[in-house]
TrEMBL record, chain A:
Keyword Kinase tagged: no
Family: Belongs to the calcineurin regulatory subunit family.
Pfam families, sorted: EF-hand_7 (PF13499)
Description of how the protein assembles with itself and partners: Homodimer. Interacts with CIPK.
Lineage: Eukaryota, Viridiplantae, Streptophyta, Embryophyta, Tracheophyta
Keywords linked to the UniProt accession: Calcium, Membrane, Metal-binding, Repeat
Domain EF-hand: 66-101, 103-138, 147-182
Keyword Membrane: yes
Any Gene Ontology biological process: calcium-mediated signaling
UniProt source species: Brachypodium distachyon
Gene3D superfamilies per UniProt: EF-hand (1.10.238.10)
Gene Ontology molecular-function annotations: calcium ion binding; kinase binding
Protein name in the entry: Calcineurin B-like protein
Function noted in UniProt: Acts as a calcium sensor. CBL proteins interact with CIPK serine-threonine protein kinases. Binding of a CBL protein to the regulatory NAF domain of a CIPK protein lead to the activation of the kinase in a calcium-dependent manner.
Length: 212, 25
């Protein structure tokens, strides 16, 4: 299958062969190529440099460039090389965690990191408060500081089993096993239909025999 | 509702955590 009317893949820094990425993830080669179609559209939306920067990520999430604490947090975890940009291999490996067939253990790990904003190995009360305040500012929910403190008291009395004021990895695993809906954000059913959502990958494929 | 007293259940409602939006054309 030839490649035509598209920017050469060598112009995408961090581009990795779909066969190699498929072997490291739960995605098939075709699915990796379909993800490349999505990656191309996001990475070329503001600066056509073959990488996704924070602004492009926010634009893809919200259709606007508004800054958002939660989107920033996801972006930082996708940006594993800490360069302020996401390359194609980062993108595929990070989305892999969100695949419906990935073991819960990996999803629990990722979600723990999501909430452990300062990377101390603990989810601390001040981090959770900061996120609650950010949530209120993006929604129409209005809660008094007293109510926020009550919610934090209740949450930490449930989750922080040893009552040391912070949630460690084992406490988090225990807490989400009792509250499985908290992991809903960690699974994207879209990833099962990615080749249907981006069928144009077939025209841009660089792999001779597409394995589905 | 018990969920309204769970800070993480509230936080996970943020649109910033909804990566499904990346797939909406």
């Amino acid at each position: 299958m030839g490649c035509f009317h598209s920017k050469p893949r060598r112009q995408y820094p961090g581009y990795e062969d779909p066969i190699s990425l498929a072997s490291q993830t739960t995605f098939s080669v075709s699915e990796v190529e379909a993800l490349f179609e999505l990656f191309k559209s996001i990475s070329g939306s503001v600066i056509d440099d073959g990488l996704i920067n924070k602004e492009e990520f926010q634009l893809a999430l919200f259709k606007s460039k508004k800054d958002n604490l939660f989107a920033n947090r996801i972006f930082d975890l996708f940006d594993v090389k800490k360069r302020g940009v996401i390359d194609f291999a980062d993108f595929v490996r990070a989305l892999n965690v969100f695949h419906p067939s990935i073991p819960m253990e990996e999803k629990i790990d990722f979600s723990f990191k999501l909430y452990d904003m300062d990377n101390t190995g603990f989810i601390e009360r001040n981090e959770v408060k900061q996120m609650l305040v950010a949530l209120l500012s993006e929604s129409e929910m209005r809660l008094s500081d007293e109510t926020i403190e009550t919610i934090l008291d209740k949450t930490f009395s449930d989750a922080d089993v040893n009552q040391d004021g912070k949630i460690d990895r084992a406490e988090w695993e225990n807490f989400v096993s009792r509250n499985p809906s908290l992991l809903k954000i960690m699974t994207l059913p879209y990833l099962k239909d990615i080749t249907t959502t981006f069928p144009s990958f077939v025209f841009h494929s660089e792999v001779d025999d597409i394995v589905t | 509702k018990p969920e309204s007293m769970n800070a993480f259940a509230l936080i996970s409602r943020s649109q910033g955590f909804n990566l499904g939006n990346l797939f909406e054309k």
